[in-house]
Amino acid sequence: MKKKIMVVDDDPDLLHSIKQILEEPESEYTVTCVSSGDRCIKSLENNEIPDLILLDIMMPGISGWDTLKNIKKNLSWRNIPVVFLTSRTDSISETTGKFLAEDFIKKPFDIDDLKKRIDKVLKSSSHLQK
Fold it and tell me: In angstroms, rounded to a whole number, what is the distance separating the alpha carbons of residues 109 and 52?
């Protein structure tokens, strides 16, 4: 069964690129793209529950920080692994991001590294082992 990944980012080009990269032929992923934290929460409320969320920090409206806070508050969603994928590269954001989420990946990213880190998080995710 393919793993579902939700990518949350306000950059449509990045969303398209990640979808193309992760859904290549023979891929083990299906990718849903949403353009804001609000849309992420609405998708989760509609029971569109992914196996992993790639989340940008700097977005208009609800930031990635607040989106993560809303995800973790909900008992049905709190075990979904979240990986920050962001241009925010200051040390405070990175340290905080690594503490709050399963991983913190800086943009621009290496495609092979992104795939490896997604696989690592999915393999270690307790939410998939239920």
Answer: 18
In tens, the pLDDT along 94-115 reads: 899 899 999 999 999 999 999 9
Domains of the chain, residue spans? 3-121
CATH class of 3-121: alpha beta
CA distance 40 to 48: 9
Instruction: Give me 49's structure tokens.
Output: 């529950």
In single-letter form, the type of residue at position 112 comes to D
Burial class (CB in 10 A: 0-12, 13-18, 19+), 79: middle
Nearest-CA neighbor of 7 among 19, 23, 20, 25?
A: 19
- The per-residue pLDDT for range 64-73, each reduced to its tens digit, is 999 999 999 9
Q: State how far the Cα of 74 lies from the Cα of 20, in Å rounded to an integer.
A: 30
